[in-house]
TrEMBL record:
It comes from the Bacteria. NCBIfam families: spore_V_AE (TIGR02839). PANTHER family: STAGE V SPORULATION PROTEIN AC-RELATED, STAGE V SPORULATION PROTEIN AEB. The lineage of its organism: Bacteria, Bacillati, Bacillota, Bacilli, Bacillales. Pfam families: SpoVAC_SpoVAEB. Keywords: Membrane, Transmembrane, Transmembrane helix. This is Stage V sporulation protein AE. The chain crosses the membrane at residues 6-26, 33-50, 95-114. InterPro entries: Spore_V_AE, SpoVA. The keyword Transmembrane helix applies.
Length: 118
């Protein structure tokens, strides 16, 4: 069990290191870095690597933002098998809609409860 925690820490940390290098060395904005990491997760998922990474590192691979790219591709592929081409579009939204909806609701609640700096 200790090894599982270790590898989750290492893999999750490596994703963080990639993001930090993009900030410090390449001087990319947070939006560019975020987009790159989502696309990286999607590409790794498309080649079948990300699922193996999840099996190996557990939460170290499912918690970072790269997992969102993996979810998009996995949902698209799953629905494409059932519904064809239209499933590619609907599958992405079906798998990720609950997380996005929760983020919107909690951001709204946070905005109501706290005074923004302005």
């Amino acid at each position: 069990m200790l090894a599982m925690f270790f590898w989750a820490f290492v893999v999750g940390g490596l994703f963080c290191v990639v993001g930090q290098i993009m900030f410090d060395v390449f001087k990319l904005t947070p939006g560019h870095t975020l987009s790159f990491l989502v696309v990286l997760g999607a590409i790794l998922s498309g080649f079948g690597v990300y699922e193996k990474l999840i099996d190996f590192a557990g939460a170290g691979a499912t918690i970072p933002i790269t997992s969102f790219g993996n979810s998009l591709v996995a949902g698209a592929m799953q629905e494409a098998e059932v519904h064809g081409t239209i499933g590619v579009l609907t599958g992405m939204f079906e798998v990720t809609s609950s997380g996005i909806s929760a983020a919107i609701v909690f951001a709204f609640i946070g905005a109501l409860l706290f005074k923004p700096k302005g």
